[in-house]
């Protein structure tokens, strides 16, 4: 498991050596860094697309983006945020932290690790190149419903299909690697119920990925054969079924949304005990709740399809199954509050982001519960209420979770402390901006504004203007985040091995910055010492 | 005492002055109750969900803020050491289950009534296509298209936007009060969704499927809605306007429509009998083009890329007339170019083809007669 980087002869041109180091690395920390930087880059690209969307929606009328272009930007924003920003960020965190946290010298399959990362830049180049093609980029939304994406899709749809295949292969390999690592490479004494919650949530997430990414691959392959090889899976004129597409897509899509949140749960479960100086409350119920959420995620896909003409009994089933998710999710939120209860709490930036995560994710959970009520869903469905709902679980959920993790572990990665004052400014401006952007969307949705439109009736104007202003500020705060990260990498106060006094876990036993190779000799985990 | 009373009074006055406009705002923030019995019941379900979330939220967030304040390190330097409690965890698993059951029961009862499409008094078949609605009254056979009426000048900010910007159509869907109306929805091309918030009816229109929904409207009036499923670049531009009339007026309207359909048939016969000149057809053709064709092919006939080809100097508009007729009347398979034969009259098709062949530098001089279109049908 010696990194190839060390095999590169020193006599080469420095640029070549640099390229070779990052192209051929099999080191989990370096690959983790690559994942994180790629996701950061794609976060800004997809974020710029969000700026185009909000700019167009600033006022009624068409100003900046023609409807055709608007739909392309909307589609790429969703696809890149989901597959390019959130998922690779979590895989990057997994790469960096799981071996450190379980006392393993590296990931179990380092070459595959390299491969699963280096597929991604090509996948996203394929996807983004479609913007410059004749007929434009995919324009059917990230859910790519047939037949809009099959019979009526632009020629670049085939590039999208190939891009999704590559992302899927990357995700499946990443997930296999994580599972194999956790199952086989835990240090002696690191029993299942001693594993840190971040490791647990990622283990469960990896199983979700292995279950559903092939389903996504299946549905895009069916699209491909519908488009070019004369099949009619989704073409009603040929005896096919457009609704079948939605069933397959959401069988992937619902577990996918938990793939984007469970690692965030894990992160909050690491950070909140640290800054409360108290053990995580209800460790066992946290693990079981995560598993319960993962299980339920497979039987709720129909709640995305209540208006497709589903029979009463099916609607009832999906409503009740969806409402049940509130129970394990509630357990998690209550446990986090109980962890803080009678702790000795301080509010460093990671803690602020973790608390923000818990609160605002809960707001998204509340609107999710409301959306589960089928009669009300007939009014909410495909309006901005839904946009508000899933942005609350994804932005202050998944993305704040990732930022909490970055502030929490960055000193371990680069050996410097970040600027606490700037970190706090980042948190507060981002929190105000995220709510200014997404909270008014509840109202525009309730007032009747459909989603995915470039232009809207005058009655929605006020809410949209507020959202757009919030979005502009939100975009700027992330430039501040980039600045803070670069500043921390370049300089800053020396970080101790145990960066946070209240932190527990093996990652704090190694020096900061963590050397390239750690745990070559597995640590010994004392009997009775728990997570 | 008096100063207290004065303070209280001015405080109350302030609250009322501040509160009244905000009450109006609260109504703007909420889901609208709509006008049907069902839309009101659905708003009640919405309120039930909302208030449960608000109460739970106040408790959970209240506990979080309390602990952040009371247990911060400066006040509570020594943390407690408890890390689990089976009874507490059991209770906060059980209570949500009970709350959820309490919510599921009324939701299920309402849902059962929403899905009861039986015993309707009349049926309207709604067929969606990019980007317009087609309504067919199955009981009387009347049918027509409903297109957006907002002019492009308003969309592109060249003219001030009127009150019903993007929510106005050329032909309203006319419905009676106090009858149970069954809607059947389907689509010709991609998936659309027919939604009128005031009726709380939202039903996807899916090619190859026929879905059902129903409503019963007690109040006459104009009700507006929009397509709610992404259906291509015109998704924002396929509004729905429903005009609800008292029963007797509605029945009269149906009679008038049947009469008008007869007259239109006679007018079509007359149009076929006449030989039209270029000067007569071009202005009429321009009007048809602006209404139906310009969104894609653009007013200047330059199109938009390869997906929406230019008509100025194109092979179709300057080539053989039968090919041109075929493209306009039957469309082009698997593209957004639709078949216009079922949507436009003989005269409109003759006029628009004549217009296309004699504008933007196309100077074929061809004049297409309505009778030619009629024979092509």
Number of DSSP strands of chain A? 0
Unreliable stretches of chain A = none
Strand order of the largest sheet of chain B: 3-2-1-5-8
Which architecture of the domain at 261-438 and 459-518 in chain A would the CATH scheme give at its second level?
Up-down Bundle
**pLDDT < 50 stretches of chain B:** none
Rough shape of chain A?
globular
Number of strands of chain B: 10
Question: Which structural class is indicated by helix and strand composition of chain B?
Answer: alpha+beta
The shape of chain B is elongated
Q: Overall pLDDT of chain A, averaged?
A: 94
Q: Give the class-level CATH name of the largest domain in chain B.
A: Mainly Beta
SS-based class of chain A: mainly alpha
Can you offer a commentary on this structure?
The complex is a heterodimer of chains A (531) and B (377). Chain A has 531 residues and is mostly helical. Helices cover 66% and strands 0% of the residues of chain A. In chain A, helix 11 packs antiparallel against helix 12. The longest helix of chain A has 36 residues. The model of chain A has no long low-confidence stretch (mean pLDDT 94). Chain B has a 5-stranded mixed β-sheet with strand order 3-2-1-5-8, with no helix packed on it. In chain B, strands 4-10-9-6-7 form a 5-stranded mixed β-sheet. In chain B, helix 2 packs antiparallel against helix 3, helix 5 packs across helix 11 and helix 6 packs across helix 10. The N and C termini of chain B lie far apart (90 Å). The model of chain B has no long low-confidence stretch (mean pLDDT 90). At the A-B interface, helix 3, helix 9, helix 10, helix 11 and helix 12 of A face helix 2, helix 3, strand 7 and strand 9 of B.
